[in-house]
Design a protein that fits this description.
Elements: E1 2-4, E2 11-14, H1 20-39, H2 42-58, H3 60-71, H4 75-100, E3 103-108, E4 111-119, E5 122-126, H5 132-145, E6 149-153, H6 159-171, E7 179-181, H7 186-193, E8 199-203, H8 206-216, E9 223-226, E10 231-235, H9 241-253, E11 263-269, H10 273-285, H11 305-321, E12 325-328, E13 343-346, E14 363-369, H12 372-380, E15 384-385, E16 387-391, H13 395-403, E17 409-412, E18 424-425, E19 427-428, E20 431-432, E21 434-435, H14 437-442, E22 445-453
Parallel strand pairs: 5-6, 5-8, 6-7, 8-9, 10-11, 10-16, 11-14, 13-14, 16-17
Antiparallel strand pairs: 1-2, 3-4, 4-22, 9-20, 12-13, 15-19, 18-21
The chain binds nicotinamide-adenine-dinucleotide.
Residues 126-130, 135, 153, 155-156, 185-186, 189-190, 193, 203-205, 208, 211-212, 226-229, 260, 358, 360, 386, 424, 426, 431 line the site of nicotinamide-adenine-dinucleotide.
């Protein structure tokens, strides 16, 4: 399996993927490691995770470089991901005890009713490449803290980062078999999920998520899916134009638009439209496309090579054929690697793929709307339901609009944001279940009901 540097198109490394026997062995080692890890006192599990945190902190720069080299995220953004991973670890360390604490829910003469939470068991984590330290960590950190063992399949576009994580767990003193990484693409992911597992946590596309749900359904393996989005933002007639445009450029183009919660379409009140678009384009032109290892770069290459560029080109072709105008960008950058110019389209509507299908790249359509009802109808016109943003000075109006939308996260005057304290979840084609927050820790466990008569 070749690991390609998306900034140059050159091979960084060649790895041997796991074969069927290798995956079976890993699954057996995981099963064998479960009883003692599960029985390990929480204080000891916490100490291991604390040492893992120290290693992440100590190796932060090297880990950031590894990620940038294999998936092309600008180095400053890779560092940002790792710094924020530290806060997520802190959240999980602080809040796991309260999740695992036995809860007395009823007491009467001769009767006590208690709830305890037990780990799922052997947990498979099949992960995406766009924020590999985040999306992997959202699963394996609370999973390990609550006493599960983990089979981790990093994306084939973030394997080196995944293997470094496995090394850090070993260095932190995690016993053999408790955390194992598998190397390979979709076929290896499928094999992993065919093993004896007690829970599966997937981050990736809707198409793969649906396939995995069908694979696991006959065995009734508990499953969580964090899938894609087509996240909208709405700018009202009284929103501060410059500030909203700046924030939305960041939301659309951070990580080259390869965020599950990237802003993928914008609706702006007609009164404000020209002014907003002018600011938006000016801000977009400030992005610095270039070598992601260069500290000044704000827009790196696309991770998934030509395949993703073809999706963007097809969406732009479809839109322009139907009357959309390109105000900036619109094509592949003329340099080696897999770079695409940040692209702004106007005169767009919902007959165009770019306003309906996930782009997952630096392309955005901006559409004018006449009132809140039209904005709401367009924002809701998607099978996805990850996030939605409203830019308005009026909190009541924002709340009313966001309450009406079937999305997992609602943003007022912000976008493309994730907090460890809040549940991360999607509705519809954006997924099942949730990670992060107390709910995300609880998701790694199952309840046991105790009926205690004296
Ligand atoms: P993908 O679906 O192509 O791959 C995800 C993972 O699944 C990879 O590790 C891949 O090897 C594996 N895989 C592929 N086919 C498989 C199969 N049949 N069985 C088991 N595993 C299989 O997605 P991607 O390109 O890595 O990620 C991009 C997608 O992920 C986007 O749609 C994005 O929106 C979504 N995403 C969602 C979130 C979220 O929190 N909701 C976060 C990050 C990314």
């Amino acid at each position: 399996m070749d690991i390609i540097d998306p900034a140059t198109g050159e091979r960084l490394e060649r790895l041997t993927p796991d074969d069927e026997q290798g995956i079976r062995d890993k699954a057996q080692r995981a099963r064998a490691a479960l009883p003692s890890w599960r029985a390990t006192p929480l204080a000891e599990r916490t100490a291991v995770v604390g040492r893992f945190r120290s290693s992440v902190q100590a190796h932060l720069d090297a880990l950031a470089q590894t990620l940038t080299r294999e998936m092309g995220k600008p180095l400053t953004q890779s560092r940002g991901e790792l710094t924020a991973l530290l806060s997520r670890i802190d959240f999980f360390l602080e809040h796991t005890p309260e999740v695992l604490e036995a809860r007395l829910v009823h007491e009467a003469p001769g009767l006590r009713e208690l709830v305890t939470r037990e780990p799922l068991g052997v947990v498979a984590c099949v992960s995406a490449w766009n924020y590999p330290y985040f999306v992997g960590g959202n699963v394996y950190l609370p999973a390990l803290l609550t006493g599960n063992v983990v089979l981790y399949k990093p994306s084939e576009f973030a394997t080196l980062s995944g293997l470094r994580v496995a090394e850090l767990w070993r260095e932190a003193g995690l016993p053999e078999g408790v955390f194992q990484a598998a190397v390979g693409g979709g076929d290896v992911g499928r094999l992993l999920l065919d093993q004896s597992i007690d829970g599966a946590f997937f981050t990736g596309s809707f198409v793969t998520g649906r396939r995995i749900a069908a694979q696991l359904a006959p065995r009734l393996v508990p499953l969580q899916l964090e899938l894609g989005g087509k996240d909208p933002a709405y700018v009202t007639e009284d929103a501060p134009v410059e500030r909203s445009a700046q924030a939305l450029v960041e939301g659309a183009f951070y990580n080259a638009g390869q965020s599950c919660c990237a802003v993928e379409r914008i609706y702006v009140r007609r009164e404000l439209f020209d002014d907003f678009v002018e600011h938006f384009v000016a801000e977009t032109r400030k992005l610095r496309l270039g070598d992601p290892l260069d500290e000044a770069t704000t827009l790196g290459p696309l991770a998934r090579r030509d395949a993703q560029i073809e999706v963007l080109e097809a969406q732009i072709r479809d839109a322009t054929q139907q009357g959309a105008r390109i105000l900036t960008g619109g094509r592949r950058a003329e340099r080696p690697g897999f770079f695409f110019e940040p692209t702004v389209l106007v005169d767009v509507d919902h007959s165009m793929d770019v306003m309906r299908d996930e782009s997952f790249g630096p392309v955005i359509g901006i559409q004018a709307v006449d009132d809140d009802d039209e904005a709401l109808a367009l924002m809701a016109d998607t099978p996805y339901g990850l996030t939605a943003a409203v830019y308005t000075p009026d909190p009541d109006r924002a709340r009313a609009l966001l309450s009406a939308l079937p999305v997992g996260s609602a943003y007022h005057n912000c976008c493309d944001r994730v907090s460890p304290r809040l549940p991360w979840s999607g509705r519809g084609h954006s997924g099942l279940g949730c990670t992060l927050s107390i709910d995300g820790i609880r998701a790694m466990t199952v309840p046991k009901a105790w009926h205690l008569r004296s």
